[in-house]
Design brief:
Length: 149
């Protein structure tokens, strides 16, 4: 499981003052409950920067998986987050851990318009904008116009 979690996991995930927040304990409980392991990046320590002269750096993007696997960050060109990649030439999955062709088909099937609409309208208002800098309220309000885009 990997992604841009937008939450620190431990104090050394940030180069400046670490402020403990209410989500940190919950995040760590989930990690421990599912016995997840946070893989170390092969290059560097941080996946996010605020791009200032004296930058704040943090590890917000991460992958939780078996410790036998390794990931690395790649250069960021658009986002303020470095993408992280897994090299599939490493043999770190046991046969019983691999997904089946049927599971893969289900995971990669095209989303229906109704699924997208349900997701868009269930998102919390006034949340951070995406790469296009438009808040979710724009998509909710203009749904009938943008539905075919």
């Amino acid at each position: 499981m990997g992604g841009d979690f937008d939450i620190l996991h431990q104090s050394d995930d940030k180069n400046k003052k670490f402020v403990n927040n209410r989500f940190l304990e919950l995040f760590n409980r989930i990690i421990n409950m599912y016995e997840l392991r946070d893989l170390a990046l092969q290059e560097g320590k941080c996946t996010w920067s605020n791009n200032r002269a004296d930058p704040t750096l943090g590890k917000l993007g991460r992958v939780f998986i078996s410790e036998k696997c390794k990931i690395k960050k790649i250069p960021r060109y658009v986002s303020d987050h470095n993408p992280i990649v897994y090299s599939n030439d490493m043999k770190c999955w046991d046969p019983e851990e691999k997904i089946t062709e049927e599971e893969n088909s289900k995971l990669t099937e095209t989303f229906s318009i109704e699924e997208v609409k349900t997701t868009v309208f269930s998102m919390e208002k006034n949340t951070g904008p995406g790469l296009d800098h438009l808040p979710i309220e724009f998509y909710q309000h203009c749904w009938d116009i943008i539905i075919n885009d």
